[in-house]
Amino acid sequence: MSTKAVPTAPATSVGHANHPAARDLIARHHLRWWEALPWLAAGAFYFVFHDYLGFGTSLMITILFALSLDLALGYAGIITLGHAAFFGAGAYTVGLLAFHNIWTEPITSLMLAALAAAAVGFVSGLVLLRTQGLTLLMLTLCTMALLQESANMAHDYTGGFDGLPSLDIAPVFGVFEFNPLYPDTQYLYTLAILFACFVFIRTLIYSPFGQSLTGIRENLLRMHAIGAPVRRRLVVCYTISAALAGIAGGLWAQTNAYVNLSALDLDRAATVLIILILGGYGRLYGAFVGAAAYMALEHFLARIYPTAWQLGLGLLLVVVALYAQNGILGLSEVLWRRYRARRATS
Amino acid sequence: MTELRLETRALSRRFGALVALQEVDFKLAAGARHALIGPNGAGKTTFINLLSGALPPSRGHVLLKGEDITEKKQAERVKLGIARTFQINRLFRGLSVLENVCMSVAERVGAAPTMFYPVGRRTDVIEESMHLLDTLKLAANAAHRVSELPYGRQRLVEIAIAIGLNPDVLLLDEPAAGVASAESHIILDAIERLPEHIAVLIIEHDMDLVFRFAKRVTVMVGGALFAEGTPREIEANPQVRAVYLGQAGRG
């Protein structure tokens, strides 16, 4: 419950833009100081944990993947358990092009990965997004399973179960060597891509289009009743989300220098969903918090209890599901409000 | 005879073996204050669903200003000027009252598909929405989340979203449903102050509200039109009293 005091509006018919609610909406997209924190942390990480840049790179890829899911699931309310389909489509695009020596330039490869994933998202979205709820969930799962099985069966091109090893990626801008032996390049390159994608996503969710996605999530029937082309908006959103997941997949393939069937695995799709729920979905920064929390937990729990570290994760998820349905961010918001309310009363 | 806004010809709808609506010929005049009453299950909400395009008819036609719109989808009909409200609130519950209204205003003025500038840049949409809330005496609640409002005020937001579409025809499906009778005057207040040019069709069980608001009343029974006339004629009609008013009472 919000405890914010809302002053009443002036009774005049002019100056409506001065009403607190209007001012709040007009200024909603403004940057807040704490939004610099993830980027400062990424910069600090580079210098302080220089030996762990590989970990940092995969963390940022996971964040991007979770962000792409947040757009579809958190904002538009598209219930999906098959988001790895797009991650995999991007990864295999980069992998196939590099493995068969067709195209190895990293940045344009990522663009192609985005295009390929967007195409998969668009075509499957046209069919899937006619459905809702469990049907939709199952169909997204099926799409992913079909893709994975296709990748498995097209053994001659994709390497099947063994995947495509030792991908040769050309230097970034033709200058900076790009392979796992050069974690500096990989880290900074991934950071730059994540930042660019984040700026795009942030712009999108604060736009009228983003607001209408929220409307679809909040009340589908009402969106129809106010004349919104609901299906078109959902397909556009799903396609964009797929493209971003494809970029994440492409980055994963480039930085690991291999692609295998795990890119299209249910395990991957479920993990990114867990990350988003853990961090808090539909709130932009949930992807950051969730990914960092998940990967840090994975790292430390696996060290303490290598054989059953997922037990700890499971327990944490139970706690989140019971007591913090809006994830870590939602919980911090509630605590912050309570703290301020207590200070205001004392 | 005043100009016609909405007209139906032999409009029918079946759900399997159930005939929900049967050969309805209905006329709604420009600027009308028209009430549709009838016992539960008479087909009133089905009728609104057919007019708004949420459901396709089994047979018959819907005409807007003389033009056949039977084949047009709901979104197209909204653009042509038909707006509706729902008997059970269908609001964006997690959003503020202002955002709820902005949603429909943005859709109407064509701002909604824009991806590359923030919502806040469209001050025209925000100002218009605030103005609308002001006229409905909801401005003080503009910043509140809809789910935090008392039910009566939520019903007003339901109406505000529809007016945000600037309709020629407004279909109100039981706007006072579920509102405590002590509060129902705020609904009557709001619909009495609707712009005159809007043709209003209202379904309502609260007979006090119907007889105070409507200039014309149509009675529907068993999916067919049963009687039509001024409120006084309907009240005096012994058959209507027998099938409907007798059961519902006049409060």
Describe the structure.
- The complex is a heterodimer of chains A (346) and B (251).
- Chain A has 346 residues and is an all-alpha fold.
- Chain A contains 15 helices and no strands.
- Chain A has a domain at 34-265.
- In chain A, helix 3 (53-75) crosses helix 13 (286-304), helix 9 packs across helix 11 (230-256) and helix 13 runs antiparallel to helix 14 (309-323).
- Chain B has a single domain (4-248), classed as P-loop containing nucleotide triphosphate hydrolases (Rossmann fold, 3-Layer(aba) Sandwich).
- Chain B has a 6-stranded mixed beta sheet, sandwiched between helices.
- In chain B, helix 3 (97-109) packs parallel to helix 5 and helix 5 runs parallel beside helix 6 (184-192).
In the predicted model, the low-confidence regions of chain A spanning at least 5 consecutive residues are: 1-13
Outline of chain A: globular
Report strand order across the widest sheet of chain B: 6-7-8-3-9-10
Radius of gyration of chain A: 21 Å
- Inertia-based shape of chain B: globular
Count of all domains of chain B: 1
In DSSP terms (H or I, runs of 4 or more residues), the helix count of chain A works out at 15
The ordered H/E elements of chain A are HHHHHHHHHHHHHHH
What's the Cα radius of gyration of chain B? Answer: 18 Å
Order of helices and strands of chain B: EEEHEEHEHHHEHEHEEHH
CATH-defined topology of chain B: Rossmann fold
* Helix content estimate of chain A: 55-70%
CATH architecture classification name of chain B: 3-Layer(aba) Sandwich
Please identify the oligomeric state: heterodimer
Number of helices in the DSSP assignment of chain B? 9
Report strand % of chain A.
under 5%
Strand content of chain B: 15-25%
Distance between the first and last residues' Cα of chain B: 33 Å
Supply the helix-strand structural class of chain B.
alpha/beta
Low-confidence stretches of chain B: none
